[in-house]
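Notebook entry, structure prediction.
Reason for the run: the old model in the group folder had no record of what sequence produced it. Starting over properly, with the input documented here first.
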Amino acid sequence: MIDTHAHIHFPQFDEDREEVIKECEEKLDAVITVGCDLEDSKKAIEVAGQGRNIYASVGIHPHEAKNYSEKDYERLVEIVRSSSKVVALGEMGLDFYRNISPKEKQYEIFKMQVEAARELDLPVIIHTRNAAKEMAEFIKKEFKGELKGVIHCFSGEKVLLEAALDEGLYISYAGPVTYPRNEELRETLRYVPSSRLLVETDSPYLAPQPVRGRRNKPTYVAYTAKVISEYLNLSFSDIDRITTVNAKRLFGIPLTDEEKRERLVYKVGNRLYINLSTRCPCSCKFCFRGVEDYILGYNLNLKREPIAEEYMYRIKNPKVYDEIVFCGYGEPFERFDDLTKIAKWIKKFSKDTPIRVDTCGLGYLITGREDLLDHLKGLVDSFSVSVNASSPEEYYKVVRPSFGKGSWESLLKFIKDAVSKGFKVTITAVDYPGFNKDDFEKLAETLGVPYRIRPYKRFRNWQS
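New structure, fully documented this time:
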């Protein structure tokens, strides 16, 4: 796990810094100690040099903006270039809670650091307090999809969350997400793509609930990760993997060979997912394909399509899983023969392990076979069909199937046929802007199947 935002170079750690760093080295993958002005950033770099996996950022906090001007640009760049341990610029941003620095000065120094990040090709660590709307506007105007970065210690404002995700920024949660009264903040977790999620401590401040009132420290990031895992119905190891890989990708910390490896199969909780193909006949407006390769901490963008036996080798013992799901970067029916072959192998060794296929429902058009459901009887137990519309007009506008006209009718036929042949079928949709939940519920009722509506997770601006 990586604590993406700490201040272990602060005076609060003077008495036991060596022990804290040792603990971080033993229990965490990395810690980023974050500078708040240029002299403070030098201290951060010095402390980063005391640990193999301690990194630093260089930045000017909005409270300190009044002490700087654009003339300090070269000094900022020089400090960044003084150490290979510097992985980001920040923290920087807008803080209108106390207005310790004048607003115009905060904007000036923020813009200066953004320009430095462009020159240095480094991500930015953004501080926002009582300035969500202003920060959202700034990000839209100044970032233009050209900068990487993170909203540090996100506090739950929808307008900022949407603007940040539209720009490809990461969202980091700290101790406050664990506080009992912060249910609205926890609710925002449902809207953050797994590939954009980070955790932090902001130590020595904001200790998570189980240790609230104590001096915070980097290893306490585990408490925050635990609450997030419980809220998202994931395992602790899932959140560990997801946030560690995300932090490494954002801050340029080398990934291990295991983290870089393209995943044929991947485990989430106690389910095993089988990633057969990158191909899909649909081009849904909300889809991550072509935008993100890493989902749930795994690289799912296959550069080749492995043979069925390679999947069998990696599955090993199907009996140990609660469910095995054909679901990955693309559409499983694009490789119908291999899907069938692998499913037969699984059932041979474990008749009781349920097998589900997550599909766009265009199996008839993809395979050209009207008998495909007959071939899957006794092999597949259930289908989760991504419909994402309640009318053909909406379907062609949002899902955009490559087969064109007739796709909607083929989709509905697949669902009805699967139900009539005894498969368990659930239809799903993403709650994207303009989605009609009531009409989708009526569609499910008409088809005689249960439904599930998933939160809309922004990978890009919806209008684009």
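Summary: The mean pLDDT is 97.
The old model has been moved to the deprecated folder.
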